Amino acid sequence: xxxxxxDRSAAVLLAVEAAALAAVAGWEVVALLGGDTVDPTSxxxxxxxxVVFAIAVGAxxxxxxxxxxxxxxGGIVTQLLTLAVAVGAITGPxxxxxFAVALAVPAVIGLVLLFLAVRRAGAAxx
Length: 126
Fold this sequence. Notes:
One of its GO terms (molecular function) is kinase activity. The chain crosses the membrane at residues 42-63, 70-90, 96-118. It comes from Microbacterium flavum. Keywords: Kinase, Membrane, Transferase, Transmembrane, Transmembrane helix. The structure is a single chain. The protein has one domain. Helix 1 packs antiparallel against helix 2 (40-65) and helix 1 runs antiparallel to helix 4. The chain is globular, with a radius of gyration of 16 Å. The chain is an all-alpha fold. The chain contains four helices and no strands.
């Protein structure tokens, strides 16, 4: 089955999110090397987790464009986790509304695209 425009759009969004995570990991490395961290051990652990997550989201993008259900499922979980971070960014003593919106808008778009891709895959199997 050839990927539909919805599948490709969802995969592109996931790929952009993977690239953004890789950029965050790079920023964390620069902060670590620049001495802008309180606990270097925790910083290294955070860098490793960020890189692993970037690789996973990239794999979800590839799997989504190839029509694999695990890619769509992983992408949906990724969007839900991103929404959780966005909600956390606005619920605290120092809310970051702009950051929350920057996270939430692509996550909602991603959820819609991925749910549409799931429906399309289900209809094609049915």
